[in-house]
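note to self: the first set is below, dont mix up w the second
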Amino acid sequence: MSTPVQTRTTAATDWRALGTSVRLVVTDPALLDSCNLLLARHLAEVDAACSRFRADSELAALDGTAGRPVRVSPVLAEALAVALHAAETTDGTVDPTVGSAMDAIGYDRDFTLVQEDDRPVRLTVRRAPGWRTVQLDRATGTVVVPAGVRLDLGATAKAWAADKAAALLAATAGCGVLVSLGGDTAVAGEPPAGGWQIRVQDVTGPADETPTQGPCATVGLHSGGLATSGTAARNWHRNGHDLHHIVDPHTGLPVRSPWRTVSVAASTCAEANAATTAALVKGAGAERWLTRRGLPARLVSQEGLVITTPGWPTTPRGAGLCQSAAPPRGATSPHRESTA
């Protein structure tokens, strides 16, 4: 979980949208209410365009198009473009065509309802159709989704929405802005002194709950985005199976990853989020993939071993709770630290 830490010079508000927690922080307290109204409007537009759980959303309407070109709104077109770019840059490990697989494992409604649902599920290995089957023409604003393909933008749309909102609010209000959606955090504008302080902590409990104990670190974010993904937050149990929301496109089943949590910082929250999901799917060796891409990251194994890539602040030896740390100097390979 990535949790923004409020300082004396900022103002913040918390609420819920897109099925997750929303946190807005601004460096000018007088502008908090007006920024929050703009944020609410923006997230409502994203929900109407991109929700997999709304029968009246644009995304849901694509299910019945059977391969015909369909004109979509600029919001959905941009969200799809981000999802397809994420698929390309992660070697297909983050794939928006896993919608049917998500439905098959029971994640076919808002997560609060998934947890309460006791319907049995039948787990079947079924490869996702693949992101290359989706055709997006940005010039005409049209999309072609083959018959039988269901899209799920959950791996990218939330982080992209945070990026868009932070940039919009900072440009409109002229102050520093932080937008966090379910722990996926984007910042824009002039940051507070020392940067936006974000607590990064391993999540082993229910989704959207801030952990009260365990290994964590506080990092200063000056620009771009920070995202955390894990297999322990959004999970549920069905007829003897422990399930979660990170699906491997090659099998259509929840991934069995050696990592329980991955956090990544990048130039955008969307890029960071795609990288965290890809790392969970890639599994062993993901830290080397992140290092080659130049992405600062913190990976926590199922056993509690913390591995960081170059650029991620190192934690003082023996620390078990949140502590600020300085970035490593001259680091060229992943750093290992046991916190179990």
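second set (the one i keep forgetting abt)
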Amino acid sequence: MTVESTSGTLPAFAATLTEAASAFRGSTQVRPKAADVVSALLEAEKAAKQQKLTYPLGSLLGNWRLCFVTTAKVKEQSGIVRGRGWYLPKIFIKAHISFSQPVEMSGENPGAAAIGNQLEVGAFTLKLTGPALYLGKKNILAFDFYQMQLSLFNRAIYSGNFRKGQGQEKDFYQQSIGELAFFSFFIVAEDFIAARGRGGGLALWIRDN
């Protein structure tokens, strides 16, 4: 995705988010202040709604590392930003999200996909996986988790059902979006993506190949 203003330059919010992503990745040494990133995320969300931007599912596929999050329901009110945000630690704690679309899924439903959510704390790793459904016209990706794996020093110590379990996975696509967790994406670039979750918080991820 290329975000340009009428003058052909990056709008301020896109420049700030690009700098934040680069700084977290280590390409630059100075990272924008957390308050500036929150404002940039809100501006990006507003621009996406005004311009009615849409993104294909293919642009989300891959592995992404979480680098910045905000409090729930952060918003701008009367020119004042309500809520705050912070960068995640670069070491010891790592959070990733991944999206894929196996051939058998795309054949049944163009928006059908799979999601993985992984948290690493030191030598301990928790990974949740399950089905997802992408509504391209709204940039909404609904999902649920049915499988869990726990690992210690890269060795699995548990692998099995999570909550409802795989027995209910076949019913996932029959549920309404209102019953599911979801992300509403408002900026999808080559190196980073950003979305608002169902709980109201904003998140920024960087591509992690």
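remember for set 2: The domain at 12-207 is CATH 2.40.128 (Lipocalin).
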